[in-house]
Amino acid sequence: MGFVGSARHVSFEPKRYEPVSLERFWDEVAWQRRQLEEGDTLVPDPESRCFSVRYRSGGLPAERSARVTATGTSTLFLSQHEWGEGTAKVDCGDCGALVRVSRRDPATLPDGELADRVVDLAEARARLDGEYLAALGELAARDGAQGAAHRLRETNRLTAMAARGDARLALELKEHDYSDTLEAMRAGEINLGHARVIAREAPKKHRRSETEFLELCRAYPADTVAKHPFAYESEEMYADLAAEQATKSREPADAEYALQRAQRNTTLNVGADGMWHLRGRFDFLTGRRINQALAAAIRSRTQHEGSADHTIPQHAADALAALLCGEDRADTKLLILADYDHTADTLRNPRLDDGTPLSAELL
After folding, report:
1. How many Å apart are CA 111 and CA 363, to the nearest integer?
2. What is the predicted pLDDT for the residue at 139?
3. Strand partners, 267
4. Are strands 2-4 and 7-9 parallel, antiparallel or unpaired?
5. Which string of DSSP letters, residue by residue, matches 73-102?
6. In this predicted structure, what is the pLDDT of residue 81?
7. Coil/strand/helix, residue 41
8. How far apart are CA 255 and CA 354, in angstroms?
9. CA 184 to CA 28: how far, in whole Å?
10. Strands of 100-250, DSSP E
11. Residues 21, 41: contact at Cβ < 8 Å?
């Protein structure tokens, strides 16, 4: 540290290391690998005589880098508050220690390393989202979801819709005590989309439990998990079905259809970009019909001459506008699948082509 003029000037000179032999380097790497816990990985870099340890088992720090020297290893980024050259952090007090991202120019990375970096950053993003939702849930519990959303909008300049959505999601996870979901996010096993599916579906009757949803979320994307919310293998569901049949109440598919019909809504607003934003929620039958009609309208437009001048999203927007304004009318039919029982000469397990179950009444 020195003074330049009347101002204090701080500069850091990088230490110069004399490279050790490759034999010494690989001996150290072998010893370090024996010390790793299950789930952790070590990535060697022989050219610079460095190696990185990535902690997959949830320990802190999430990653550390060490340089092998003649007298041992010199560790960088080990402390949550020690930051090395080329490392970025969010400057928000102690919260900055939660974010540790090495700055790399993507254009200089080979294909394999670039793909690995994207995967690692997506996992780091999921970990940070877990911490974010845990803290936001506590804030929403104290100040209310609206108060937490207002703070996000005023301080972090989130849109009103995004702020309200995050605050409600965090509060729902806390109110239903879905701590396992937050821990899975903190471990990088699931992402924000999975958390939204669990918070929306798990509390409902005849749905899978949080544990069952987490098993699916660790193996499949959120949109795939959302298509299979029913817990058909649950003993509790079989008991509920028997009780409902005894009282001649509706089947689960009927109850789900009625619930989704009650929750249907559509909004059309002018966004911050000056464009109109259309957002809708429909029951599984209406949504499937809309999807079929829109897909048919898009196909008809892409077959016209000059269609290459527009992108698929632009064709979709034009097709939807034409359908809503009555300019086009798509003749579509729903595809329904069922299993034929030769012995009883009946159809069983009726469902849409995407696997959504149908009751006898809906069929």
Report:
1. 50
2. 92
3. 279
4. antiparallel
5. EEEES-STT---TTEE---BTBGGGG--EE
6. 33
7. strand
8. 19
9. 33
10. 101-102
11. no
Question: Which pair of tokens denotes residue 282?
Answer: 């429909």
Identity of residue 83: W
Q: Residue 214: its pLDDT value, please?
A: 92
| Calpha distance 86→287 (Å, rounded) | 48
Residue 93 structure tokens: 């007090």
Could you say which DSSP state residue 336 is in? E
Q: Tell me the residue type at 210.
A: E
Q: CB atoms < 10 A from the CB of 240, how many?
A: 15
The list of the chain residues with pLDDT below 70 reads 1-18, 55-63, 71-101, 231-252, 272, 305, 330-331
Position 89 scores a pLDDT of 38
Q: What is the DSSP string of 240-256?
A: HHHHHHHTT---HHHHH
pLDDT recorded at residue 73: 67
Only one residue has tokens 């009751």, namely 359
DSSP state of 107: G
Angstrom distance (rounded) from CA 205 to CA 259? 11
Q: Which two tokens stand for residue 163?
A: 């702020």
- pLDDT value of position 27: 80
SS3 state of residue 350: strand
Q: Which two tokens stand for residue 144?
A: 């209310």
What six digits make up the tokens of 49? 């005589």
State the Cα–Cα distance between residues 167 and 162, nearest whole angstrom.
9
pLDDT at residue 136, rounded to an integer:
95
What local confidence, expressed as pLDDT, does residue 340 receive? 78
What is the H or E stretch that residue 297 is in? helix 284-302
DSSP 301-320: HHTSTTGGGS-HHHHHHHHH
Indicate the helix (H) or strand (E) that contains 7. Answer: strand 7-9
